[in-house]
Structure formats: structure tokens, C-alpha cells
Amino acid sequence: MNLTLRIWRQTDRTDRGRMVSYQVTDISPDMSFLEMLDVLNEKLTLDGEEPVAFDHDCREGICGACGMVINGVAHGPERATTTCQLHMRHFSDGDTIDIEPWRARAFPVIKDLVVDRSALDTIIAAGGYITAPTGSAPEAHSVPVAKANADAAFESAACIGCGACVAACPNGSAMLFTAAKVTHLGLLPQGQPERYTRVIGMVDAHDEAGFGGCTNAGECTAVCPKGIPLTSIGRLNRDYLKASRRRGDTPGT
Questions:
Q1: Residue 179 Cα distances to 34, 159, 185, 214, angstroms
Q2: Contact 157, 229 (CB under 8 A)
Q3: Fewest C-beta in 10 Å: which of 95, 137, 160, 205?
Q4: Residues 194-210: tens digit of each pLDDT
Q5: Cα separation of 64 and 199, whole Å?
């Protein structure tokens, strides 16, 4: 396969950035998208040019490090697929492919396709955990969990924190990510003592980090590589309303 790649190049946070075109040839359909970029970077290095910077780690679709907008879609055209697991067989010989970084106010570009996603860490630090005595793990069957709650908790726990939901959202909201973390812990017995302080803390951290508000556009679920459902945001909203009443807030203020 011979392809034209139009890639966003930006030297640092202060650079305005621009799209630059590159040609790659003899690309195998069995290559992953990141392997294709490796081929390009090897060529650029041999030609004495600066290689394209992009995030990656496990390349197995489980770490959440990879992330780029491919032809206008976060993670590319295949549903429930991370960029590192996207293969070139989903493209055609002669295609022109646009490759851009996550674009959101809370995700400033560091270089090329690499963005600063530390804002997601501030949300986790605000409540994405439980405080419990340390010690050996309890017997798995000692704390009964309803199957419906267990299934929903596991579904939300699948979130890998890649940030695709933010990149796809027209408002730049990270509410699907936040909801997944809140739902995961809020459905389990171990998460009940801090259930309402958790949702208040994490939503406040979300807003303070500069993410936009959620208007239920649904673009987040369409690109989520782990299929986190929109219903998790509904669960977060219910918990947030209850928590607001508990601390005496007036909803909508």
C-alpha cells in the first residue's frame, strides 16, 4: 500500500502548528497503525528529519497511552478499537489519511501528536479510590454483590483513560471518563462510605481542570474503545444530585 499522510506537526506548546504531508510506500495491510508510523519515522530519521512524536506503550489496547484523531475520528474508523490495534487493512491503497492530536482545552499539545492528559489524573486524585484498612485480601465471597451491579461495575472498570471521549465531545467534556470511575466504585459495597463525597470531588475537579459540560451528544460512547455506555453518565448525575442535596446545595446553581 502507498499512502499520503497529512500529520499535525507542532514543536511545542507555543508553536501554532500545521499539517505536513508525507508519503509512505510498501505498507503491509497487516501492520498496525502505529507500526505504519514507525516506518515513517524510520524514513524521516534516515533522511535527517525530525520524527513524528506520538504516545504509545503496551500496543495491546489496554494501557490507554495511544491516541490520535484519524480522519476526524478518535482512534480511527473501527469501533471499540484503540489506535494501536487498528490495522492498515482498514484503509485502501492510495488513501490520504489525516492524523491529528486530541483537541481539547484541557489537553494542551506538547509536541506533534502528544498531548498533556494529566488533567485526567487530577480527577482520579479527587476521589477515584477507596480508603480501607490495609491487610490481606478478604475472601471473595464474603461480601455479596448483586450480579447486575457487578456487571455494571466491571463494564465501567474497563475504562483505560485514553481520553478519546474528550477528543470526540463537541464540548471537550470528560464526563464519560469521570462517570466510569464514579460508577465503578459507586456500585460496589467497598465504595459506599465515600460514594457521595467522591462524586462531588471528581465532578468539581473535572470542571476546574477546564473540561466542558456534558450535553449528552453521545459522541463519547461512539469512539470509546471499551464501549463505556452513556448510562454511566446517568448514574453519575443521579449520585451528584443526591450528594448536592446532602450537602445543602441547590441544584442548578
A1: 29, 10, 10, 11
A2: no
A3: 137
A4: 999 999 999 999 999 99
A5: 23
pLDDT of residue 87: 98
- Residue 138 is given by DSSP the state P
pLDDT at position 135: 74
- The model's confidence at residue 171, banded by pLDDT at 50, 70 and 90, is very high
Residue partners of 163: CB distance under 8 A and separation at least 6 = 64, 67, 102, 104, 107, 115, 117, 120, 174, 177
Q: H or E element: which one contains 164?
A: helix 164-168
Cell of 182: 464514579
| Residue 190 DSSP label | G
* Domains of the chain and any CATH numbers: 3-110 (3.10.20.30), 117-246 (1.10.1060.10)
Tally Cβ neighbours within 10 Å of residue 171. 17
Q: Residue 115: in which H helix or E strand, if any?
A: strand 114-115
Distance CA 40, CA 60 (A): 21
